[in-house]
Design brief:
By secondary structure, the chain is α+β, with helices and mostly antiparallel strands. Among the domains are: 133 residues, no CATH class; 136 residues, no CATH class; 65 residues. It is built from 23 helices and eleven strands. Strands 1, 2, 3, 4 and 6 form a five-stranded antiparallel β-sheet that branches. A four-stranded mixed β-sheet has the order 5-10-9-7. A two-stranded antiparallel ribbon has the order 8-11. Strand 3 and strand 4 form a beta hairpin. The chain is globular and about 105 Å long.
Length: 545
């Protein structure tokens, strides 16, 4: 019952912001059309606002889960009209904090001890508050400054209820709209379900941060705060407190004499290193999660927070993505089309010539601009949207990659408007490709598999024996098959020889008849015995079994 009351609330909010207009181009039918015509009161003040703003305001009114959904939806720019995607990207996850006494109770229950026995100088007032969790400051008894992230009480139940509703709406769209299947609404909700439940598990977030820290432990460009695992649970995360400059505070960065050009280029380098060297990339790199260290102004260092959402590419996807990007850089559209088919991003029956021509029509106008004016992320987005016309289905990892690249490039352009992402990316990709094909690199990979090979060594004799046994059996079967084929071939040859012999006799009989004809011995003068002999021979040859 609660679910349907909530649905009624959603419909009222949708009517208040005139969201029915969003469905004008979707060709509603059946119950969907009737449902959206329910007599809910609309808001006349929102009538003059564009559809993207109205949708954003409606999601904000519906609460934190819908705000979070709008943020995720804004990353699916391959499926949304750009004006809506741009407006949804502005959604701010600013939520009123929950009671600090309740926060303390959750921390004490999770850690099995009183606050004062674990922390000193616990900040009861939250430092920040979001839809999933809020953050408090504290210091350990040993003196280290930390922050404590606490999951909101009862949020999982609210999420499950709203996800059930979103699934209901998605089914409605897919079943009762003409283009519902193409919109893949259920797939979007499924991705959202995965992402938001992952954010609820703070131990998973801590593990992501620990792995990211390990990946960059020998690289100064990125710092990741330490996780205190002794005080971390599924709903409580304790980590080192940092005192950097928020990356969106450009004036403060300038006052600290940070080299903004170098900072922007370093951000691009970090992104490509995560994607291609580590295959493990931070997929939520919006300004609120990125800080800059005040030290080493000439060699700036990023600080990464909120490691809840991470992406990963398979080795095949890494390889094909790099080759695709290099082909795009070199404007080799034939190669781009072939790679899309080869890696299975588009169906195997995709017409290469048509795909190549379409890619060229998209890219060539863009490449007429100076490289510094070309948005790499926007180009990749446009290519994905174009490939969608050839039934390309984006994998979640590629969607996260696309979203992250847009974030990285946006941050870079904000820091240094003349950033040429191509100039930074091309040498990285070419170097990565050379390393991948290097004999030494392949030798390293082989060396890494030696322990596994040694572990299987005791089983080698048995494996060899089984292989030889199967080979002997296969050889006997092959020899038997060859003998049968030879026998059948010999019989067929004999039948062919007989047919040829009969044909020869028939031809000879016919030649005799023709000979007498040529010599002027016509039908009326030809001996009857000779006619009978000729036709008897032909008959025996052609009707003999």
């Amino acid at each position: 019952m609660k679910k349907y009351l909530r649905l009624l609330t959603i419909l009222k909010v949708a009517a208040r912001y005139n969201l029915q207009e969003l469905f004008n181009d979707i060709n509603l039918n059946g119950p969907a059309k009737l449902l959206l015509k329910l007599p809910f009161q609309s808001n006349t003040q929102s009538a003059n606002l564009n559809r993207g703003i109205r949708l954003r305001l409606a999601l904000e009114e519906l609460g934190p889960i819908f705000i979070k959904f709008g943020q995720l939806l804004s990353t699916r720019r391959d499926m949304l009209p750009l004006d809506i995607a741009d407006e949804l990207a502005k959604l701010q996850d600013q939520v009123a904090p929950f009671d600090e006494v309740e926060a303390q109770q959750i921390i004490e229950q999770a850690l099995g001890n009183k606050i004062e026995n674990i922390f000193k100088d616990f900040g009861s007032a939250p430092l920040a508050s979001a839809s999933i969790a809020q953050v408090h400051t504290a210091s350990l008894l040993t003196g280290e400054e930390v922050v404590i992230k606490v999951v909101r009480p009862g949020i999982e139940e609210i999420i499950d209820q709203d996800l059930a509703l979103l699934n209901l709406i998605a089914s409605f769209i897919e079943n009762y709209t003409k283009d519902g299947k193409r919109l893949r609404a259920k797939e979007i909700i499924r991705d959202y379900d995965f992402v938001i439940h992952d954010e609820l598990n703070l131990q998973a977030e801590g593990a992501n941060g620990t792995q990211l820290k390990k990946n960059f432990e020998n690289n100064h460009v990125l710092y990741v705060p330490k996780v205190y695992w002794d005080y971390t649970r599924k709903n409580v995360l304790v980590m080192e407190r940092i005192h950097g400059i928020p990356i969106s505070h450009i004036d403060e960065l300038k006052k600290a004499n940070i080299d903004l050009k170098k900072l922007a280029e370093t951000g691009v380098e970090i992104f490509f290193t995560q994607v291609f060297d580590h295959s493990f990339f931070h997929a939520d790199m919006h300004p609120g999660n990125i800080f800059v260290s005040r030290e080493h102004a000439d060699k700036p260092q990023y600080i990464a927070l909120d490691c809840a959402i991470f992406g990963s590419l398979s080795e095949d996807d890494q390889q094909y993505l790099a080759r695709n990007l290099l082909a795009i850089f070199k404007r080799d559209y034939r190669k781009v089309a072939e790679l899309h088919v080869e890696c299975g991003w588009v169906p195997p029956d995709t017409p290469i010539n048509a795909f190549e021509a379409t890619m060229r029509s998209v890219c060539e106008p863009i490449f007429e601009k100076p490289l510094s004016e070309i948005s790499f992320g926007a180009l990749l987005l446009q290519l994905f949207r174009t490939a969608g016309r050839f039934n390309m289905e984006l994998q979640p990892s590629l969607v996260l990659l696309q979203k992250t690249l847009l974030n990285v490039e946006g941050l870079g352009k904000e820091l240094y408007p003349n950033l040429d992402l191509w100039e930074t990316a091309l040498p990285f990709l070419e170097n990565w490709q050379r390393k991948r094909l290097s004999p030494w690199e392949n030798l390293k990979k082989l060396k890494g598999k030696v322990p596994e090979l040694l572990e299987q060594l005791p089983e080698l004799p048995e494996l060899v024996y089984d292989f030889l046994s199967e080979t002997r059996i296969s050889r006997r079967q092959a020899q038997r098959l060859l003998k049968e084929q030879a026998k059948e071939s010999k019989q067929a040859q004999q039948q062919l020889s007989k047919k040829r012999f009969r044909f020869g006799l028939a031809a000879l009989s016919l030649a005799i008849v023709m000979m007498f004809t040529e010599l002027g011995q016509f039908m009326d003068t030809m001996p009857l015995e000779l006619w009978l002999l000729s036709f008897t021979g032909i008959g025996l040859l052609y009707f003999r079994r």
